[in-house]
Amino acid sequence: MKIKLIFFLLVFVTCSNGTVFNEIEIDNEVFDELINLDTREKILIDTSNLIVINYWASWCLECIEEHEFLIQLSNTKGFENRIFLVLFQDSRQNALTFLNNYGRGNISYLLDPDSKLSINSGVFGVPETHIIQNNKIIKKYIGPLSITNLQEIIISYSNEGD
User: Fold this and answer.
1) How far is the C-alpha of 97 from the C-alpha of 116, rounded, in Å?
2) pTM of the entire structure?
3) Is it the case that residue 23 has pLDDT exceeding 80?
4) Which of 19, 31, 121, 157 is most exposed, with minimal Cβ within 10 Å?
5) Cα–chain-centroid distance for residue 102?
6) H helices of 85-158, where?
7) CA nearest 99: which of 112, 110, 89?
8) How far apart are CA 156 and CA 153, in angstroms?
9) Beta bridge partners of 137
């Protein structure tokens, strides 16, 4: 009984504010396994600069809600080619239908074969957004992004050179 209570409290505290700050380092080879959703070609991601990776699925209602925020962020100066949406436990065809319905923005849409990046990043579910620099997750947002979260991300970017 005590273990269940401790586990519940740990989960509650961790998930209550939607932001996690523990750094997780990801092997660069895991990034090299990502595939472009449209072309099905492997891509290279430079994590030496701050990037944003969002895990999403077409069946996720909260992903629909935050998609417009991610498009707006992708069109913000300095975030061009730094926003990546990784499909999580969904089909490529469903993802393409989603993008036709809700738009694309200046975002790279990716497939994660065998969920290697998701597993190594400790993804709980969708939506989940990670701020990454130098192969390290420096901040996680669990659940849909809010305007406040977007402001934090933009401030992180503006402080990147400090």
Assistant:
1) 24
2) 0.83
3) no
4) 19
5) 17
6) 92-102, 116-121, 147-158
7) 110
8) 5
9) 24, 132
**Residue 94, Cα to own-chain centre: how many angstroms?**
18
Query: How much is the pLDDT for 154?
Result: 87
Name the token pair of 135: 């192969």
Residue from 30, 31, 37 nearest 110 by CA:
37
For residue 5, the one-letter residue type is: L
Rounded-to-integer distance, Cα 65 and Cα 143, Å: 11
Q: Is 82 exposed, middle or buried (0-12, 13-18, 19+ CB in 10 A)?
A: buried
> At 139, which amino acid appears?
K
The answer to whether the beta carbons of residues 52 and 20 sit under 8 Å apart is no
Q: In the numeric block, which tokens belong to residue 38?
A: 């449209």
For tokens 């417009």, the residue is: 68
Helix (H) or strand (E) holding 139, with range, is strand 136-142
Q: Which residue has the higher pLDDT, 10 or 148?
A: 148
Q: Is the dihedral of CA 53, 44, 116, 27 positive or negative?
A: negative
Type of residue at 35: I
10 Å Cβ neighbour count for 2? 6
Q: Give me the pLDDT at residue 17, please.
A: 43
3-state secondary structure of 84: strand
Check: CB of residue 31 under 8 Å from CB of residue 117.
Answer: yes
